[in-house]
């Protein structure tokens, strides 16, 4: 098996070969403006060398996941895994020499940088018995090794830049050969770019980038216009793995396609300007008719006129029995009293904003509502009511809990009353195998509008060894309750 692959042809039609073995020792830098064909070049390189060497692709746009179908690459969705899982996957990729694509398109830029940094660091830190040769292709490298700080978090930028510097400066001894592609050399950290000995320069228009490109290619600056005039898919190559003198390369065809590839032009719909304007300015659809909650379920009718409403009220008053005609309320049995108390509790827990009211106000309201339903003595003191109400808020107002529910409520009795409702809601979701309530829902159960306070509450529960929180790079969360051996699903 040869270690040289065919990148494409030069101006005369002769093939331009790339020596993969030499590339492993000398690294590659690809530069070109958007639309110059960088991703096409990387895809050609990946496809032609797939059977020769292990490949690791850092893919911020998810463009290279199609390699999995044809060439067997393993796609790792960075948004689906936690930090520890990303590290383990990278270590196993090195151990088993698996070609992988780390797809980061589901993450914001800060988390893309953190995830890539963790993955690259794990590749770099693998034990020496796993130092097999591997190409590490980083598309849009200026995102992961920026020349200056931008709007991203400083810790994410430092971690990503350190990982990229290790890859390019110290990766060779560990078998890692960096292949980095960037839209602009001026945006790429110089320490990262300077370690490449092979260059493929595509079309670019800014003077500063053209001058840096000609300097790297060993060309005179008056020749910089050549770079501006390059066609899409044409590059100037130089380096020990390509050619000892600058050579023009027209990149060959590829088998796979990026998911973002647009297949030609799509004409607009055949419609007149007036028709399209009518579509854009069409009125919003009418909302569905609201149901009359106090009637028979039919859609609500138009508002009743004030005079008619007053007449209806007078008729109702005339037909109402007098106080002397009212029969005394019957005495409720213990089961009936418990049912009334439970119904009132559920009714109050279902009302918007109830969790923001003081406990004393809620207890007084509960007492009044029970009396209005004929229950003179509900048998609860303020502390018992608060516990029962927390259970009702969490949807766990069980009269006689058993199994995991009973263990959960017993565990909840050991924590402060203000934490019971969010803790019980988490526990209910974990027992049912459902996603954990989001921060907004937990904040409401905690009696606050502040999402930050809800997160601090969750941190307090974790520090108290009641829960264990696991969050992946996309922000999805799973909360486990070790004492019950249950956990919510990742969402």
UniProtKB/TrEMBL annotation:
Keywords: ATP-binding, Nucleotide-binding
Gene3D superfamilies named among the record's database cross-references: P-loop containing nucleotide triphosphate hydrolases
AAA+ ATPase domain sequence ranges: 24-214
Gene Ontology molecular function terms on file: ATP binding
SMART domains, sorted: AAA (SM00382)
Cross-referenced InterPro entries: AAA+_ATPase (IPR003593), ATPase_Atu1862_pred (IPR014588), HerA-like (IPR008571), HerA_central (IPR002789), P-loop_NTPase (IPR027417)
Domain of life the protein comes from: Bacteria
Name of protein: ATP-binding protein
Lineage per the UniProt record: Bacteria, Pseudomonadati, Pseudomonadota, Alphaproteobacteria, Sphingomonadales
